[in-house]
Every structure is written in structure tokens, then in C-alpha cells.
Amino acid sequence: MSDKQQTAVTPRRDEDFPEWYQQVIKASDLAENSEVRGCMVIKPWGYALWERMQRVLDGMFKATGHRNAYFPLFIPLSYLEKEAAHVEGFAKECAVVTHYRLMDDPNGGGVIVDPDAKLEEELIVRPTSETVIWSSYKNWIQSYRDLPLLINQWANVVRWEMRTRLFLRTAEFLWQEGHTAHATKKEAIDETEQMLEVYAEFAETFMAMPVLKGIKTANERFAGAEETYCIEALMQDGKALQAGTSHFLGQNFAKAFDVKFLSKENQLDYVWGTSWGVSTRLMGALIMAHSDDQGLVLPPKLAPIQVVIVPIYKGDEQLNLIKEKIEPLVKGLKKQGVSVKFDTSENQSPGFKFAEYELKGVPIRLAIGGRDIENGTIELARRDTREKTSMPFDGIEQVVIDTLNDIQEKIYAKAFAFRESNTHEVNSWEEFQTKIEAGGFLSAHWDGTSETEEKIKELTKATIRCIPLGVKKETGKCVLTGANSEHRVIFARAY
């Protein structure tokens, strides 16, 4: 059971991070590129991880009063046209359905689109669902008694991306999108901020990934929103990743779709809206935040299998002795809510299994052989530190529970320390240019104009990730223009 002397994933993180990322996905059997350009196949291990995320998030949404529903995949073109900023924001990414039937080619060229089957109105494959949902809300909302309306949808969406990368940017991806309607502006803003807190709690408590909470600039704001709140995380290559967004829509979509309600004061007014979402992009964040040159490193709270037990035996007799010893442990761990697999399959050697479960990021591996049965011991291996310890079998159940909690905490602490050591205050353009090359978050003054924001992006490829929530007032000079600034913002290069 000796450690491998070489890395399981090539190239290493510090050699070629983008390629390392792709190879981790491949080696851990999470997903693969589809034959359909720009799309991905999420394989069983990857989907099991997504299901864990989904289950936790869904519980958090329901705990805050939200209910799930489902809306059409297709959106009439006229719906998008109703909200000008929204259609402008998504126009270049929309897939459009124009016909509804195929036919045999009369020239013998196989199957062609029937030219006579043209739709009266083109349908957009949803890039996001605000328009089709608000068209339904018009029929659902008449009075203050119908509010607040707190709806979430788990769905797939399509955004026709030209340059794709597994999980981070694909033409089709999975996500959830919350869409809520409220009687007052304050209620809607409170909802927007509440859901941002839900996302931040999920990222930090379950993904073990520290995040910055903030507000997007006008340039980075969601198309059709009045304000976009976000959480930003730092990946191991020093690039930022937007891990979730929550949008205050004001009355924009209510006005576009004429969604009014009768207030308690018997006044007719437009409702206030929000929308918020996270996607399979979080899978990419999880990989890039924690994994290493041996494959995936998964936080125990999200790992599809938290503990794997591998028996090492010669003959059925020895295996039966191990089973007799292990089965009560398996039952005990499952009773405490631990996902555990006792791998007695005979098609692979124990060494192969060790390597496979390490690649897949299973947090704890237990190994037990004939000699362990005699000595009353068992070997515990941690995925995060790759430490292996032989310990007494008695009391192993509690040791496993404690170790899972410790792994979760240590993974977060490591990611937090990385972020802190790669967050810098910069006060001059020269310093900005130097520091941005090394990666990380840069806290710097900005004059508040879109022109300066665009110029900095053009010169350095860095964008304003967010204006941090609760940012302290601090008089300063913009790093680029020298104009007055009231507070710092966070810059980074980003995915």
C-alpha cells in the first residue's frame, strides 16, 4: 500500500492549469465532450455529484419558502422582444427553432427540413426563463393575496457559446433558476439578498469554498436587472469564478408583461421581481478550488461516496471473516447518514481500487486484510492529505465521523488561506499591472465609470468582480485615471 511516486494526472497544475483541469475531469470520470458541438455528457460519477449539490440546494430553497415548478423549454420570439435590455443581452447566444417537421429529400439526399413546415413565430430555446415565467405570472397574480410568489425551476438551458470548456461554459447546461414576485420593493430586495446568503452558505459550508459577496457593476449586471448580487470564488490558478448570482429585477418584467396586483389599499400597481441561479458551473468551481495532481478532492458533505472500504483477502474464507467484521461498521455509518461503499467486487485488484477511488476524490478509504483481522486493526487513508494510518478497529466508526468533519474543515481552511494570501491592496497602475500577472484578487480604487472599467479590461484582461457588500468608505484615487474614488472594488482575471 505504498504511495504512488508519480502524479496520476498530467500535466501538473503548475505546468498547464487548463489542461490539468480537463485531465482531472477525464481521469475521475466526471464528464466528457459530446459529439454534439459544445455540449457535454455528464457521466454517472459526475451526475451523482450534481445530485448531491441539487439535493442540498433544493432543501435550502424549500426551507426559505420556495416551491418547484416547471416551465416550457421554448420561448416565443415576441416574449423576448418585450424587455429590450434582456433581449439585447442574450441575442447573440440564442438558438432559434424555425421549422417543426422533416421530410425525405426528393433528390435522394436523405432527410431535409420540410420548407412548408415553417413556424408562424420562431421559438427560442430558453437561455433563461424570465420572459416565459412572467407571461404565466400575469395569469397567476391579481391581488396582494397572491404575493409573494416564490418559485424555483430545475432545468436545462441553452446559450450558444463558441468557445466551450466542460462544466464552465457549454452550449447546454443544467441549473436552477428562482423567480419571485413581491408586493413591495423592499420585499424584493430582501429576497435578492436572502438568496445570495443561501448561495454563500452553500458554497462555504458544503463546497468548502470561501466566497466574496458583492454587487456587480452596471457593465457586468444581468440583462434586464436593476441590480445583480454575486458570490465570487478564487481558483487555484489565481483566476476568479462567479459562483452564483441573485438579481433584483425591479418592476421591469412586470411592466413588460403587464403583471399588476391590487394592493391592500385597493391600488393597482406593478409587482416587484427577482431571479437567481446557480449551475453545473459549480462542478467546475469544485474541481478547480480543491483538486490536486492525483485527481479530484471532494468535500465530504458533497462526495457521492464519503467512505469506501476495500477488503484485501486470499480466498472466500478470509473474505467472509472480513465481511463479518465490516458489515456492522457499514450499518453503523449509514445510520449516522454517512454514504459508504464496501467494495467486494472481484474484477479489479485492491491496488487498482485504491487508485480509482483516489482519482474520484472519495474522502476516506478504509483497507482491511487478514492480518488486520488478527491484530484488530484497520488502515484509514485521507484523500485530502493522502495520509495513511493503521489504527485499532474498535472505535473506528467515531474516528471516521470525526475525520470526515476534519477533512471538511481543513479543505475550507486551505482554500481560505490560499485566497487570503492571494488578495492584495494595490494603489498604483504600475502595481496593478504587476500584481494582476501573478493572479488573485486585487482590491483597488476605481472612478466609477464604465469607460475606465472597459479600459482596464482591455489593457489587463481584468474585470471588476464585485463591489463588496458592506465595503468601507475610503477616499482614494482610481488606479488608472487618478480620479476620486469613495471605496475599493475587487478586480481579477476570471473564467
What's the quick description here?
With 495 residues, the protein is of the alpha+beta class.
Main sheet overview: 11 strands, mixed
Question: How would you describe the oligomerization state of the chains in this entry?
Answer: single chain
- For the record, the CATH architecture of the largest domain stands as 2-Layer Sandwich
* CATH top level label of the largest domain: Alpha Beta
Number of helices: 14
Query: What would you give as the CATH superfamily of the largest domain?
Result: Bira Bifunctional Protein, Domain 2
What is the tally of beta strands? 27
First-residue to last-residue Cα separation: 39 Å
- The average pLDDT score comes to 97
Q: Class by helix and strand content? A: alpha+beta
* Gyration radius over CA: 26 Å
Strand order of the largest sheet: 3-9-10-16-13-12-11-24-27-23-22
Describe the structure.
35% of the residues lie in helices and 28% in strands. By secondary structure, the chain is an alpha+beta fold. It has three domains: 17-72 and 133-290, 2-Layer Sandwich (BirA Bifunctional Protein, domain 2); 307-402, 3-Layer(aba) Sandwich (Rossmann fold); 423-492, Translation Initiation Factor IF3 (2-Layer Sandwich), CATH 3.30.110.30. Helix 2 crosses helix 6 (185-206). Strands 3-9-10-16-13-12-11-24-27-23-22 form an eleven-stranded mixed sheet, with helices on both faces. Strands 18-17-19-20-21 form a five-stranded mixed sheet, with helices on both faces. It has a three-stranded antiparallel sheet with strand order 4-8-5. Strand 14 and strand 15 (268-270) form a beta hairpin. It has 14 helices and 27 strands.
